[in-house]
Amino acid sequence: MNDEPQTPPSRSADRVYDQVKAMAVTYRLRPGERVNEVELARSLGVSRTPLREALNRLAAEGFLIATVNRGYSVRPLDPKRVLTLYEYRAMLEVGALRLACERASDEALDALAAFAARSRDEPDDDEHALELLTLDEQFHESLARLSDNEEMVRSLRSLNERVRFIRWIDMRKGRRSSTQDEHLMILRHLRARDADAAAALMQTHIARRLDQITDMIRAGFAEIYTGNALAAKAMGEVA
Amino acid sequence: MNDEPQTPPSRSADRVYDQVKAMAVTYRLRPGERVNEVELARSLGVSRTPLREALNRLAAEGFLIATVNRGYSVRPLDPKRVLTLYEYRAMLEVGALRLACERASDEALDALAAFAARSRDEPDDDEHALELLTLDEQFHESLARLSDNEEMVRSLRSLNERVRFIRWIDMRKGRRSSTQDEHLMILRHLRARDADAAAALMQTHIARRLDQITDMIRAGFAEIYTGNALAAKAMGEVA
DNA sequence: GGACGCAGATGTGAATACACTTCTAGCAAG
DNA sequence: CTTGCTAGAAGTGTATTCACATCTGCGTCC
Fold first, then answer.
1. Same domain (yes/no): B67, B107
2. Has residue B52 been placed in a domain?
3. What's the whole-number average pLDDT of chain A?
4. Which of B76, B103, B121 is the last residue of a domain?
5. pLDDT score for A238
6. Does B145 lie in the same domain as B69?
7. Are residues A111 and A155 in the same domain?
């Protein structure tokens, strides 16, 4: 189970990258907060050099902001930006979907449908929001992979990570019931090679909660400054 | 004019980032070639530390590939990937365009049209391919900005940089005549708030040369290994 | 004669050391 | 009491040094 003995992953920078990303994504590092390099490095058990490499990559990917002579800070939780990311994600997924509709084999679509059907059996309570979110991301990412466009998949993965916290907040409100059914419906349209129908459904599937983003962010702030169960869980996984 | 005295841009890492990116984009560093850090650092007049930060960012953005214990190498010039990037770019621009159609003011569209009309006066010979390409990128980026979605603009910029070399090759074949007219036509559709027409035109505008990518890459290799005027020009700008 | 193996060289990954900028606290002048 | 100035502290940016992995070439063993 533990693969550490055979994989001493030569680069501590990569490990640190994952760890810090998890911290930023779950807002264990608080939005707007400035990162103290020596302190964080010490707490992660490495020197500043690999930490700075990780911070650099995270800044390049939009998780952090770099300011000259003032180091790095976590990107503030800004409604406008979250909206922007949601919008981008919707467009990207619809675009990938249209490509997938032309390119995906019937077998691949069936396999994904099987996965989606299996996901339906997961419990739907507040406790399992993270697992549900993970399943949802996996579904969407697998679907995007059927577009056979690696760069789109890459972008989608990055986008998903950046809005994960907000989506987790959203998931906990038990909105999921309809989600899984829509997944299956999208696949049915794809199977029928009806790109327009699939695209339209995907668009509403993603954009549905756009107008509630401000509320979700409000709830997000509450979570961040009063507990943050997501950060706790993520830490358990990574560290 | 020269702002160097008042702006000694505290971070040599940023300068190095721009320089190395220019090298990678123009394939002054050859595709597949492994980057020797000490050598490159010396030739840029800095130590390995800021250079490595630059390389990190470039790898995160997809310009370079990082391999464990073997450092960085320039991403090879792969037809499949270029096609992927073109495809992504087409989708992204069409998506941004649809948003712009809803959101852009008449004034903004007119201003952009004026810019496009002005660009028409540029000479069209082989020598000015780089300027033409720059103007084209500016047009498309300005258009994307009208979507009011910062993340899309960011992605588009990155995509443009990654395919710049190939597009430059393409530009030198004097394909431009129709380009400018199509730009104006797209704007006219937007002005009439006809998103579908604009989107369709944009799609063909970008995807037109997709089937010729293999040829362009062949020409690209020839350029890289026999002269590479683009690298020479870019060096003049940056260094 | 070929394959394996073993230094030495080369080059990357990480840690430490140093320089310089920004922030802070305290004092002095108005 | 407020404002401005000035060391000192704190923290980032860069250089240097050390550690370790990979590559190369030559010699030896089979």
1. no
2. yes
3. 91
4. B76
5. 53
6. no
7. yes
* Whole-number Å distance between alpha carbons of B70 and B76: 16
Task: Determine what percent of chain A is predicted with pLDDT higher than 70.
Answer: 92
Q: Which domain holds residue A71?
A: 12-76
List chain B residues with CB under 8 Å of A10.
68-69
Render B68-112 in DSSP notation, one character per residue: TTTEEEEPP--HHHHHHHHHHHHHHHHHHHHHHHHH--HHHHHHH
- Measure, in angstroms, how far nucleotide C2 C1' is from residue A147 CA: 50
Pair (A114, A160) in one structural domain: yes
Nearest to B159 by CA among B224, B84, B215: B84
The answer for residues whose C-beta is within 8 angstroms of residue B236's C-beta and 6 or more apart is: none
The answer to whether A79 CB is within 7 Å of strand D is: no
pLDDT, block means (10 residues), chain A with 239 residues = 46 96 94 95 97 97 96 94 96 98 98 94 82 94 98 98 93 77 96 98 90 89 87 68
Contact flag B53-A57 (C-beta cutoff 8 Å): no
A7 touches strand D (CB under 7 A): no
Residue B164 in any domain: the answer is yes
CATH of the domain at A33: 1.10.10.10
Backbone angles phi, psi at A141, to 5 degrees: -70, -40
pLDDT at B120: 86
The CA distance from B53 to the nearest CA of chain A, in Å, is 6
In this structure, are A124 and A188 located in the same domain? yes
B91 chain-A contacts, CB cut-off 8 A: 91-92, 95-96, 152
How would residue B82 be classed by pLDDT, with cut points 50, 70 and 90? very high
Q: DSSP label at A34?
A: B
Query: Which residues from the 29-58 window of protein chain A have CB within 7 angstroms of nucleic acid chain D?
Result: 34-39, 48-49, 52
Query: Do both A58 and A124 map to the same domain?
Result: no
B34 phi/psi in degrees, rounded to 5 = -85, 140
Instruction: Identify whether residues A136 and A24 lie together within a single domain.
Output: no
